[in-house]
Amino acid sequence: MLDLELHTFTPVDPVLKKLIKYYWFIKSNNEIEIHGKLIPMNNIDLILNLSAPIRYTSSKGEESFQGSHFAGIQNKYRVVQQKGIVDIVGISFFPTGFYPVIKIPLSEFANTIVAMDTVIPGFESKMERIAEIESNEQRITAIEKTLMGLVDLRLLPEKNYDLLVKDFLMNGDSINIKNYCEQHCINHRTLERFFNKYVGTTPKNFLKTTKFQKTMNRLKNRDFDSMTQIGYEFNYYDQTHFINSFKSFTGKTPLKQLKQNDLIIHSFPKR
Predict the structure, then answer these.
(1) pLDDT tens per residue across span 150-164
(2) Given a cut of 80, is residue 221 above it in pLDDT?
(3) Which residues contact 271 (CB under 8 A, 6 or more apart)?
(4) 90 with 22: CB under 8 angstroms?
(5) Domain with 68 in it: what CATH number?
(6) Contact, 45 vs 70, CB < 8 A?
(7) In terms of DSSP bridges, do strands 45-49 and 68-71 run parallel, antiparallel, or are they unpaired?
(8) Are residues 263 and 183 both part of a single domain?
């Protein structure tokens, strides 16, 4: 069992409440070693790493990040390792919440991990001051002051698109994109452009990742009677399709994942 303190907080600023789901803080009092998987998610978490370097390993190689960084929308898992005293602040954005901050189409960062200083010069120097603040509440105040200096209010997504993304999150396992566009009088290419810019992936991949996350939560909570039940409930074509899709995200079959119970990094914040 890892000796980690975990705390989550909701945003305070009314504008940031529209963009950010929650902040999460992970801290250890002693040196520890984290070894787990960062699995694909349908939103972006900005990582403010105030401690030892974090190493990410994928089939493409290994990268190490000392300071603030984020992973664009991924379609494969990465192995994550960190050794030492841990002090990390995570900012978990809603699927459309990061674009008004960074102002660059998020599809440009797909399947990459990016240091914040490369897209917002000077960001790291502002975040270094956070390490000197002890209170999580005071850290949030300082973070929100920095973020509000970056947010372009003109880029906040229109309400109808926000509702659309929420619909995809809630009912994604039963949505047919072509039929959805026809029923809601949405141009398919316009929808594609919106998702690529604001979310960082296509509508199809967003639905696929959302479905996977729901199945992962079922496994994690052991809220199922059989693997067949999960596959059927989330509208996979058959059991083989469910297993292959799950394995493409985690590197393991659902049964092996359940038995081995790897540390899944995206499961840190319990909301």
Answers:
(1) 999 999 998 889 899
(2) no
(3) 8, 21, 22
(4) no
(5) 2.60.120
(6) yes
(7) antiparallel
(8) yes
